[in-house]
Amino acid sequence: MSDLNQKMAAKYQNNFLKEIEEQAEMGEWVKMCMQCGLCSGSCPTNFQAGWDHPPQELFMMIRAGKRDEVLKSNSMWMCTSCYNCYVRCPRKVPVTHVMHGIAEYAYRIGQSPKNQPTQHLSKTFWDNCTKTGRVNEVKLTQSLYFKDGIGSGIKKAMEMQSVALGLVKAKRLNLMEAVGLSHKCKDIKGIHAMLAKANELEAKRQADKAKA
Amino acid sequence: MTSVVATNQTILVVGGGISGMTAALEAAETGKQVVLVESNPYLGGRTVQLYRYFPKMCHPTCGLEINLRRLKANPRIQVLTLAEVTGISGGKGAYSVSVKLKPRYVNSNCTACGECGKAVQTEIDDAFNYNLGKIKAAYLPSSMAYPQRYVIDPSIIGTPDAERAKAACKYDAVNLDDQEETISLNAGAIVWATGWQPYAAEKIVYYGYDRFPNVITNVEFERLADPHGPTGGKILRPSDGKEAKNVAFIQCAGSRDENHLRHCSRFCCMGSLKQTHYVEEAFGDAGKSTIYYIDIRAIDRFEDFYQKVQANPNVSFVKSKVARITQDKEGNPVCNGVNVEGYKRYATAHDLVVLAVGMEPSVKGIDIPAEVMSDSSGFIMADPANAGIFGAGCATNALDVNRSVQSATAAALRAIQVVNKVARAEV
């Protein structure tokens, strides 16, 4: 992974904006930002505690070529995809998508922050739901709770106990999923074939991009 | 029946604001016959609703007075107020135009003595003051109104109030049988100068213009500062009448925004810089202004005006487009957002928030009874296919008064060229 990072850094040298434009999905929108601040003002997450940088600052850092600071930042991973910024942006910059694009690129070249919770969730969720075409909620929660070890996992599970019981009572959570008896798609093979094709297309697209 | 003298050598000017008046005067002063059509009961348009002009901070009444003197002295201009163009047929050099005339119910005997206004009891919204106050249903639209003649609102026709107005008039000026009529006239060229309207601020949902009484627009603020306005020139906020000593101005309220108006409205930065003077004029050092901006565009040669305001310790600038307005317990509007200089969140309470709303062309969405081309914002453009109709002023672009006048003079010249050709052909 770090090889790819070195390769990309060498390819774009000091033009980080160009790197983002070409490699990150929707990255070509970064230059459209006019620094009005409406996106961060509209953001429901309190980034001063949780985020390193609000979106328009991140965009400015990309233009300023602050490669390491941007790629290693946790900011893109804190986006909750509420789309307030995208809806309101006076330039119609798809801020939400750009954030995800940068996050995905940072992950792809191995520069994203380690053990970042939302990154962990994304990965776990994806692996979990692509297995059977449906999410195994018990296993997903387990994986999240025990991310930082058994002790903190048990503590979190105890905290959420009443919520879990409520979900079970309302038949929203099936405890049998813990032993693999989860709901599945009817045509698992079909789902896997579809995902394989999508992966193939995406790999080709990225290979073309890297070549270009 | 209203009679209008017009031939194919006549220039029709639609809209009697600063642009239309200028185009009409410039053409008439070169010897052309002009018909000036205005939908309001008075001339002057949005310009006379301003308290002061930038950059010299003089009053619009001054410029209007000069123009009115020129108008009164010129027999070649026929003015039709309460009039609306409803149809245009024919082509360059030979247009046939129908004009709908709404009844004023007051004839030229009127001396503007005001007795009818005193007699009438019904009150209506004061359109001249952007509905910030109420006026009697028999009214003079503004102190500078031309023609200087009262208007009776159609809503009281057929009620005892109308009879009271008639009985109060000593000059037999009230004619309650006045009827709407449509006249047709000829014109060789047409100048379309229907101006602009303030962007509908309630559409910018996160500013709560329609939810918070102390969030107003820049055009309304002009009326608050004007001695002839609803507060007699005192800057009092709408919710409780408290003096608004701490005023926030939000730039680009609707402008430069793909979700609202995609163009820069050009006048609003200078407008807000100008309005900080009103706050200082009213309260001295106790008056504080805050301008929230993306970037200040002091269009034209006004950078020095901007620099002087910047140097004023009572005016502060925050580089940020406010993301949301909320209201605190005292009814103060609170501006929320992120300051782009330092990327810190703020939530600042003010006495009053003024939205510097942008210009929307009046022609947008309105059926001009002729084929004209418009740009992506709805402003009309020169159309080679219909070469006898010319836009002027804010119907063609977002312009300040100065540039509207330039635009109108250019349009008058183009119209003159058309009717000159007609004249040569007819000899």
Topology overview:
The complex is a heterodimer of chains A (212) and B (427).
Chain A: H1 2-12, H2 16-23, H3 38-42, H4 47-50, H5 55-63, H6 67-71, H7 84-88, H8 95-108, H9 117-132, H10 137-145, H11 150-159, H12 161-169, H13 188-211
Chain B: E1 10-14, H1 18-28, E2 33-37, H2 60-72, E3 77-80, E4 83-91, E5 94-101, H3 115-119, E6 123-125, E7 134-136, E8 138-139, E9 151-152, H4 160-168, E10 181-187, E11 189-192, E12 196-198, E13 215-217, H5 218-225, E14 246-253, H6 268-283, E15 288-293, H7 303-311, E16 315-319, E17 324-327, E18 333-339, E19 344-349, E20 352-357, E21 359-361, E22 373-374, E23 380-381, E24 389-391, H8 401-426
Parallel strand pairs in B: 1-2, 1-11, 2-3, 11-24, 13-20, 14-15, 14-20, 15-16
Antiparallel strand pairs in B: 4-5, 5-10, 6-7, 8-9, 12-21, 17-18, 18-19, 22-23
Describe the structure in your own words.
The complex is a heterodimer of chains A (about 210) and B (about 425). The mean pLDDT of chain A is about 90. Chain A is globular. Chain A has 13 helices and no strands. Chain A folds into two domains: about 1-115, Fumarate Reductase Iron-sulfur Protein, Chain B, domain 2 (Orthogonal Bundle); about 115-200, no CATH class. With about 210 residues, chain A is an all-alpha fold. Chain A has helices spanning about 1-10, 15-25, 40, 45-50, 55-65, 65-70, 85-90, 95-110, 115-130, 135-145, 150-160, 160-170, 190-210. Chain B is of the alpha/beta class. Chain B folds into three domains: about 10-100 and about 180-195 and about 360-425, FAD/NAD(P)-binding domain, CATH 3.50.50; about 115-170, no CATH class; about 200-360, 3-Layer(bba) Sandwich (FAD/NAD(P)-binding domain), CATH 3.50.50.60. Chain B is about 25% helix and about 25% strand. In chain B, the strands form eight sheets. Chain B has a five-stranded parallel β-sheet with strand order 3-2-1-11-24, covered by helices on one side. The longest helix of chain B has 26 residues, at about 400-425. At the A-B interface, helix 3 of A face strand 18 of B.
